[in-house]
Amino acid sequence: MIYWSTPLEAGVTLGVVALEFLVFFLGLKFLPLRPVGDEWSSR
Fold first, then answer.
1. pLDDT confidence bin for 41, thresholds 50/70/90
2. What confidence score (pLDDT) does residue 22 get?
3. What's the whole-model pTM score?
């Protein structure tokens, strides 16, 4: 027996993955990941 997901299940999965990417990239943009006076920030 082979299981095929329904389009609704595939859409929900795709939406969850897209939300994870969105949160990740928003975190990269807005969270302070290194100190302000870091020597690498001026390069």
1. low
2. 97
3. 0.65
CA dist 10 and 6 (Å) reads 6
Q: What is residue 32's predicted lDDT score, i.e. its pLDDT?
A: 82
Strand spans (E) along 1-43: none
- Answer whether 40's CB lies under 8 Å from 34's CB: yes
Cα separation, 26 vs 6, in Å, equals: 30
Q: How far is CA 35 from the centre of its chain?
A: 23
CA 7/CA 14 separation, integer angstroms: 10
19, 31, 37, 39 from 34: Cα distances, Å:
25, 9, 9, 10
